[in-house]
Structures are given as structure tokens and as C-alpha cells.
Amino acid sequence: MLSVFHIITGLEAGGAERVLYCLIKDDRDKEHIVVSFTDEGYYGPLLKDLGIKVITLHLNNVFKVIAGIFRLLSLIKSHKPDIFVTWMIHASLLGGLVAKLSSNSPIIWNFRGTIFTPGGGKELFYNFLLKACSLLSDKIPSKIICCAESISEELVDIKFPNSKITVIPNGYDLNIFKPRPDYRKEVRSNLGISDNLLFLGMFARWDPQKNIDELVHALSLMKKKGQRFKMLLAGSGINNEKLTALINICDLKNEVILLDQSPNVEKIMNSLDIHILSSSYGEGFPNVICETMACGIPNVSTNVGDSSFIIQENGWIASDTSRFGLADAISNAIKDYENNEVFLEKKHNSEKRIKEKFTLEKMISSYTMVIESCLEEITQSKSRHD
Predict the structure, then answer these.
(1) How far is residue 348's CA from residue 352's CA, in Å, rounded to a whole number?
(2) What's the distance, CA 160 to chain centroid?
């Protein structure tokens, strides 16, 4: 049985981790081994339940990094994997280097999120790591997978070899993310929102990238125009003092609902009329846009990452990331919302777009093809030398 050795930064409940889990879950023809640089996180126990070997290195300081490198070398030598798949920037650089030094098996780098980000601190270090990957991209990986055309273009701009890059968009489980009128009724009832009141929402963690301050100011502009609505902000860290103070300053205490991260996000998605993504940077292939569209919820979005490619004519793209650009886009969405025929068509076509282009099955099939093409190249190379 062919063995695939996955090296990933961590196994928390993120987009890259979800893709790794889905890929392994539906590919039982190969032996999969997962090495996490940190801990088991959210997906480690789920992978173990599938019978997958999960190894954690706990690399949380410099001394442990040195010990972890030696342990990773030992693991590679003992398992002798047929192929490596590295997930995210830290694992691709460090894991890729160790794999290259200790094995002749092909290496696939995997970038599932944003590329360059503004700011200092962690962002500056991340950008340094990305530049280091760029310098080594000719030597280490056989293939480079990314989830968005926008990411592919940025990689090429910073001298990653275009010939090695394959774009595989994220895929979604349409048994989970689908229109559910019963969920709409249940959630709205729990929140005390009538069926005919415009219900907007955004699912995002509390982070400068998400541009939530400008969104709140945009909502304030909408209220001043006399628009009636409720707005849900849901995600990790959202229910905080700073945001609560801004909501009060903008006189939106009765309009905005704050909700911490929910395990049944598809239920809440179905309760919305329109979803908004207000990010100012840092998006690659925003999962939340596809998930809400799969539920038949049209999107307003800033033009970040592949957002406009995903949405196309089935939603509304803001002219810029300011409160004024967001307010204009939301106003356009409301005009269509008030035209029942137009809005129903956008709902239907949003769901149809995801069904046709971004299914879980398509994503897994594309990954399998890339992995098997690398293995085939190695097999052919060996036969030529024999």
C-alpha cells in the first residue's frame, strides 16, 4: 500500500485542516500518516477515529524545534513514505527541508490560505518564511497546490515556478451546507427575529483582517437612511468590549447581535437573508462565501482573494473596503432583496454555482490526481534508471 506522509503546522478547526481530514477520510486506498508540529487540536482525535496514525511534535519553543527536527528525521527514516504532502507555510518550509534531506520521495507543498499580509510581528515573520519558500521552490517541491487563482498569481509574482503550481479550489459537503427552511424558522424563532425582517450576517473571527469596524460604520450609515434590519456577527472573539463599545457609539445596540463561534454554523447560515464578508485583505478562497451560497444565501463581499470569482453575478461586490463602499454594496443588495423575483433567482443561482463548481468530491478527485501524478513520475524515473 502506498504511504502518504502529511506534515502540517497544527490540527485546529481551520480550513486547511478540514481539507486534510476530508482528503484522508475518503481515500482509504493509501496509508496516511499525519505529523502535527503542534498538538492534536480538533482534527487529531477525528483522524485517530479513522484509524490514522497522528504524531505530535509540540514545537512551541526553539529548543523543542531542534529536538523536533531530529524526531521528524527519525520518523521519515522509519516510515519510508512514498510521498510527502506539507500543509501551510511553516510545515512546507521546515517539513519540506527535512523531507528533502532525508528522502528521495516527491514533496507537495500546500498553501490553503492568504499570502502576504500587512503589519509587523507575526505577519512580518510569516512574510519572511514565504520569501524563504520562494527561494527554495525550485529545489524542494515537485508540485505546489494552492486553493485560489489569486494566491497562484501572488506566488508567481514572488518567483515561485508557475509550472509547478496547481490550483485546487476548496470543496464543500453539500449534505451539510444546503438550504434548510426548518433551520431558518428555528434560529429566527430562538433569536426573536420575524420572518419578514431583513437579517444580515457575517461569520468571522475578531481580527483586523476582517475589517469589522468599517462594516459597523457601514451599518450605521444604513440605519441613518431609515433601513430596518438585524445584523448577526458570529465567530471566535467577536463578543468583546471593544466591538460592543463601537456598536453603542454607532447607535446599533438594537440592530446587532454578537454570537461566539457555533458548532452548527450551517443552521445559523440558513437563517440569514444576505451574508457579508467585509475583509480588507488576507483572504484566499473564503470558505464562508461558498458555505453560505451552498445554503442558498447570496453574498455581499469586498473584492479580496477569489471572492468575486466565486460570487460572479450571483451577489454584490463592494467597490472598496471602506464603510462607504460596503454601504453602497449592501444598499444594492437590499434593492434586489426587495424585488422578490430577482432575489429568488440570486438565491437559486448561488446554490447552483457551488453545486456545479465547488463540491467536496471535485476537490478530493483533484488532490488524488496530483498525488498520483507525482507517484507516477517517480515510478517512471526509477524504471528508466533500472
Answers:
(1) 6
(2) 21
